[in-house]
Amino acid sequence: MKNKDTILVTGGAGFIGSHLVDRLVDKFNVIVIDNLSSGKKANLKKSISKIRFIKTDLSKVTVMKFAKSLPKIDYIFHLSALADIVPSIDRPLEYVHSNILATYNILEIAKFKNVRKIIYSASSSCYGLSKNYPTKVSSHIDTQYPYAHTKYIAELSIIHWSRVYNIDYLSFRFFNVYGPRARTNGTYGAVFGTFLAQVLNKAPLTIVGNGRQQRDFIYISDVVNLLEKSIKSQQSNKIYNVGYGEPRSINELVKMLNYKNIEYIPKRPGEPYVTHADIVKTKKDFNWKPLISLEDGVKLMINKIDYWKDAPVWTKKKIKKATKIWFEKLS
Question: What are 211-235's pLDDT values in tens digits?
């Protein structure tokens, strides 16, 4: 253990974080920080005995006191954030605290601990209603709602701290990541959790618009493979897109689920018709490529469908009520 590098993972009990921790525990000393607002300790059942777990809210810590309580840290994966569009519109200051202030604090910890690299979980939502496909990292930034705005400001903060304080970073702008342990709480949003809970409960699949909109779905294991490669990679101080690189329509997804009970709900403002990551640079720089097709990923999800047995079951009526502010503010 003494000869292993130490990695700090914020949001390590969440969806992406817990899968990453499971991958890292046998190769590194791992410290997980999570306030469990959306993550679950149950997500870490494979790894909990091998890690140090700290339950705390990074936006509220006394940063230097907290930093001094930590051992030497070699790398930081900063994955923690408040997600979801609707509550970010309703309660933007919570997102400022969770996604921006917490990032400032983790950057101060990185500076104090002289970490080798901070690896940030950014969001493709920064591109807004992009008109360029596939979307390059250099594409126009057009955040449509506070969640996207705060995630992008956090990314800019990391870049700034890197320049001023000589902290190496990598920022990965994730597109539509899916897989087991994807969040089941929070306001209506992520399509896989919504659909699988509806299938389990024999409720109609609620398809937004005409279902022809396309998403660049990427399976969690492909994301974790890339994150693991990024640790010792020579690449630094760069931003990358992370997706499968081949967008698929919601109608195709529904067909793969082989479920006939469907109903349509209104198209939502502020959402792109297509998400399509340009991953040429990502594949080249990390000698990486996504391996799990959507067809195979859907099969894997169906095999794990019981994970969503306690997820909220969204109906057309519930969705209309939950997304009212979305239409009011973004239309």
Answer: 999 999 999 999 999 999 999 999 9
Radius of gyration over every alpha carbon of the chain, rounded to an integer in angstroms: 19
CATH number of 6-176+217-242: 3.40.50.720
- Distances from the Cα of 259 to the Cα of 200, 244, 306, angstroms: 11, 24, 17
Residue-wise pLDDT for 44-58, tens only, equals 999 999 999 999 999
Q: Looking at the whole model, is its pTM more than 0.90?
A: yes
pLDDT tier for residue 1 given thresholds of 50, 70 and 90:
very low
The candidate with the shortest Cα–Cα distance to 224, out of 35, 106, 47, 36, is 47
Spatial separation of the C-alpha atoms in residues 316 and 13, rounded to whole Å: 31
Residue 87 tokens read as: 């509550």
Q: Give the residue from 178, 188, 237, 238 showing the smallest Cα distance to 208.
A: 188
CATH match for 184-216+247-275+293-330 among 3.90.25.10, 3.30.420.40, 3.30.720.120, 3.40.50.300: 3.90.25.10
How far apart (Å, rounded) are the C-alpha atoms in residues 240 and 15?
Answer: 20
Helix or strand (DSSP H, E) at 224: helix 220-232
Write phi, then psi, for 141 (nearest 5 degrees): -90, 130
